[in-house]
Specification:
Layout lengths: L5 H5 L3 H9 L4 H7 L5 E2 H8 L4 H13 L3 E6 L5 E6 L1 H4 L2 H13 L5
Antiparallel strand pairs: 1-3, 2-3
């Protein structure tokens, strides 16, 4: 959980607790991209476009600490690391799909 959201979690509000876990610029997008299938770090980076490797690594680590994302390392050469949703992370699917649908229905005009 991001340090800036820790105070939200202290207010004992269910909505604030959820936002404390998934709030921020990239976490919802990372979770959304992991809905359909596990992805490697570089695949996630490409899908997100402008995220830096440092930021992606930090966000994935926080999502792992909050038990929303699982990191699996395969002992092959070169090493292969795959990220997937945990059971807890998968429970966000309806919310993430509705956020996606809302964005399709109300696109931002440029």
């Amino acid at each position: 959980m991001r340090k800036t959201f820790k105070q939200m979690a202290l207010c004992n509000c269910a909505t604030a607790n959820t936002l404390a876990l998934i709030g921020g610029k990239w976490k919802i997008l990372i979770l959304y991209h992991l809905l359909n299938h596990p992805l490697r770090f570089n695949e996630l980076e490409r899908k997100l476009g402008t995220i830096t490797p440092h930021t992606l690594s930090k966000e994935l680590k926080e999502l792992q600490e909050d038990d929303l994302v699982n990191k699996e390392i395969f002992a092959v050469i070169p090493p292969k690391t795959v990220y997937s949703l945990t059971n807890k992370g998968s429970e966000l699917e309806p919310v993430l799909r509705e956020i996606h649908n809302f964005g399709k229905k109300y696109p931002i005009s440029k």
